[in-house]
Amino acid sequence: MARTLRVSRGSTFTNAYPYPSRVYVPRVKLLLKLLFIPFSVVGGLVAGFVGRKLFEQLWGVIDDREPPEAEHREASFGKVVLAAALEGAVFRGTRTAVDHQTRRAFASLTGTWPGEEQPEPE
Question: pTM of whole model > 0.85?
Answer without folding.
Answer: no
